[in-house]
Write a structure and sequence with these properties.
The complex is a heterodimer of chains A (322) and B (121).
Chain A: H1 20-29, E1 34-39, E2 42-47, H2 56-59, E3 63-68, H3 83-95, E4 103-106, H4 116-126, E5 133-136, H5 149-155, E6 165-169, E7 172-176, H6 193-204, E8 212-215, H7 234-239, E9 247-251, E10 258-262, E11 265-269, E12 301-308, E13 313-320
Parallel strand pairs in A: 3-4, 4-5, 7-8, 8-9, 9-11
Antiparallel strand pairs in A: 1-2, 1-13, 3-12, 6-7, 10-11, 12-13
Helix pairs in contact in A: 3-4
Chain B: H1 2-16, H2 24-35, E1 39-45, E2 48-50, E3 53-56, E4 61-66, E5 75-76, E6 93-97, E7 102-107, E8 115-120
Parallel strand pairs in B: 1-4, 3-8
Antiparallel strand pairs in B: 1-2, 4-6, 5-7, 7-8
The chains are: A alpha/beta (322), B alpha/beta (121).
């Protein structure tokens, strides 16, 4: 890791907080996979092709988990007529990871139309994962018609409000947030006053050295507000996390991998397991993107995250399904 | 009455499309006569409502049809929350009959960037 690598990106958060060159490089890797390590607020990022050169201990951590997102069970249009099959492929991929994840995060849009049979189908497929614990947050497709009542009954045990909660794993503090409820006309994703107040209180007593992982469906950074890809009150939420040395924000919703670093915060969106969506602004609308069948699995994927205790590092790896 | 008819003619002419310019007036007039008991359609496509600004006569039934691969809703944002559809999957529709004059802004509660207005005169 100490060797200078060609594509290494060093992010110095003493400047403006955004390494644009590095961000663009990560963008270029979207869909092909990237490996990022944060150490003491410095992000080092490598393309998948360099991973062969990396030492095993750099990739292993004491805590390992995988993120899946946007399974859209029930979707059956041209962009993917077998979303159950691609979710199964995602589970196979996770089960085949060299470092077995201890649990899974699902960042929402579990179902396509909030139908009970869609949730049932996802539950059934995820039972095939070696990791038995799955932590969820809802997407807008999971709370249709009933203001999230069914979602809460199924997945909200022990959560507050519309389904937000936090938990600890190996010294890492995880926060699951809900930003798909009570959306206002013309607006973006929304956390709301009650949840923000809860978040402030939830992290207040933690030491600033505690690594934080925040996960929510809609990106908590402004990816492309024109398509609603952002959260209107995310700045306030991130304000409560300012004191922490390492914050990782994991989102879904936009059906493509994207990454940004701002100060000590790394933002990352996961690919969908169901269908791809266009790069922001590259199409008239964010509707499902149809690719040739043989290419579909190359635009779907999972995200694998490793945390190395003591090294202050979270490593994020995106893998394509095929 | 003149004003009402004029607005209806304009609204329906826009709806009918302006491909056949010479025919526009005749078609709009006959459509306007039917509209008192008639239907007007709003197409949901490419994450937008079309037309975005629709003007209809009191008593008109507006039907929204979802032509996207993604589900949408039709939810009014006026103070009385006049209408609210269930989620509409592809090719599903929702109808509402406007019995009172007024301006009815609405949006898709799943994709709140999608906003539009029905004006009833």
């Amino acid at each position: 890791m100490s060797d200078k690598k060609k594509d290494e990106i060093l992010h110095d958060h003493n400047h403006d907080g955004i390494d644009r060159r590095g961000f663009l490089k990560c963008m270029a890797w979207a869909g092909t996979g990237a490996f990022c390590v944060i150490q003491g607020g410095v992000l080092k990022s490598y393309s998948m092709s360099q991973m062969g050169d990396m030492k095993a201990e750099d990739m292993k951590g004491e805590l390992s988990f995988a993120q899946i997102s946007d399974s859209h069970m029930g979707f059956n249009k041209a962009a993917n007529t077998d979303v159950a099959g691609t979710l199964k492929a995602a589970v196979d991929k996770i089960n085949g990871l060299s470092v077995a994840p201890q649990f899974l995060l699902h960042t929402g849009d579990i179902s396509h139309l909030s139908k009970p049979e869609e949730f049932d189908a996802v539950d059934q497929i995820l039972k095939g994962a070696t990791a038995k614990d799955v932590f969820y947050v809802p997407g807008e497709h999971d709370v249709l018609n009933d203001d999230g009542k069914q979602y809460l009954e199924r997945y909200g045990k022990g959560s507050k409000g519309a389904g937000w909660y936090s938990f600890e794993k190996k010294g890492v503090h995880f926060v699951g947030l809900v930003n798909v409820m009570n959306l206002k006309a013309g607006g973006l994703g929304s956390l709301g006053a009650e949840q923000l107040e809860w978040l402030e209180d939830d992290v207040k007593h933690l030491k600033s050295s505690t690594p934080i992982v925040v996960f929510a469906h809609i990106p908590l950074w402004s990816v492309y507000p024109e398509w609603g890809w952002g959260t209107e009150d995310s700045a306030q939420a991130l304000g409560y996390l300012k004191k922490f040395g390492s914050v990782t924000v994991l989102n879904g919703h936009i059906h493509q991998t994207m990454q940004k670093v701002e100060g000590k915060v790394t933002f990352h969106t996961a690919a969908s397991t169901a269908f791809p969506q266009p790069v922001p602004g590259s199409a008239p609308s964010p509707g499902p993107m149809k690719v040739p069948p043989e290419q579909l699995k190359s635009v779907l994927g999972i995200t694998d995250v490793n945390y190395v205790t003591g090294q202050h590092a979270l490593a994020i790896v995106d893998s394509k399904l095929g | 009455m003149k004003n009402i008819k004029g607005s209806v003619c304009l609204g329906l002419a826009l709806l009918a499309g302006v491909c056949f310019l010479p025919m526009q007036n005749i078609e709009a007039k006959s459509a306007a006569q039917e509209s008192k008991a008639g239907n007007v359609e709003v197409k949901i496509d490419n994450f937008s409502f079309g037309p975005m600004n629709l003007t209809v006569a009191v008593g008109t039934t507006v039907t929204w049809i979802n032509r996207d691969d993604i589900p949408h809703t039709v939810v009014s944002t006026d103070n009385d929350k006049t209408f609210k559809s269930k989620v509409l999957d592809t090719d599903e529709n929702f109808s509402f009959t406007f019995t009172k004059a007024g301006t009815y802004p609405y949006f898709c509660s799943v994709h709140p960037k999608m906003t539009a207005t029905v004006t009833v005169k």
